Amino acid sequence: MSPEPPLADEASPPVPTLVCDTAALIDALPDTAGVLWKLAESGRQLDANVVHQPAGRRVETHREPDLDVLLLVVSGDGILGVGDEDTPRRLDSGMLMWLPHTSARSITAGPGGLTYLTVHRRRPGMQIRPAATRDGAA
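RE: above sequence
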């Protein structure tokens, strides 16, 4: 009998890993909106979420001030509202959209719902900073 491989530790190099089977997620879609999966591996440099919106559900117009976001439509369809005018752009399964930081956007699920993957640089953890003085300097 061959020896078991050593357990991975912090000193081991990272290896590619299957983290989510989106087809399996799609087969079991809930009736409610929300995050179906999120990347949670330690030491990662990215944040990623698979989000489901039931038919007609809308994420109101908002801006991401700091991070560019990639949005990949996994299943369903909907409308991406672009800019302050909320100009509609069609979203269909397989489409990959770049949402630049500071851009205004909304998302509305179509009649069959909308499931999408978002990926962006990982947000830094909360940091304690010195209080600002009256003139705004720290």
